[in-house]
Write a structure and sequence with these properties.
mainly alpha, 2 strands
Length: about 120
């Protein structure tokens, strides 16, 4: 949230300063930016930064490729353990009954539900 406020403040300050400086100052800044962009020193620095970023991206990708299978297996293991604990707890408390269509009973009671011929909903049997 802090960064959002800093960004909004920066936009507001830029707007105010830009409005006061006018079109002439804008053109000066645009020309200065173009000169800097076309400068060999800036292009060389940009190339070096780009090469370094590519190297970091490759290193990060390699590290992630090694860690993701381990993390996935750990997450699956923990999820399976948690699911077993939840199912055991629900079973012990008598919660999570199933209806005849295989879905959990809407009222949480155990037992099979059948549909009476004269009623639109299910009734416990």
């Amino acid at each position: 949230m802090r960064y959002r406020w800093v960004f909004i403040l920066g936009v507001a300050v830029g707007f105010v300063l830009g409005a006061r400086a006018g079109r002439e100052r804008y053109e000066q800044l645009a020309n200065l930016t173009r000169k800097a962009k076309d400068s060999p020193a800036v292009q060389q620095a940009a190339g070096a930064v780009q090469a370094q970023a590519a190297g970091l991206a490759k290193a990060t990708k390699d590290k992630l490729a090694d860690r993701v299978p381990k993390l996935t297996e750990t997450a699956r293991s923990k999820a399976g353990t948690a699911r077993s604990k939840v199912e055991t707890t629900l079973h012990e408390r008598g919660v999570g009954g199933k209806s005849t269509n295989g879905r959990p009973a809407s009222d949480g009671r155990r037992g099979e539900y059948t549909s009476a011929p004269d009623s639109p909903g299910g009734t416990p049997s």
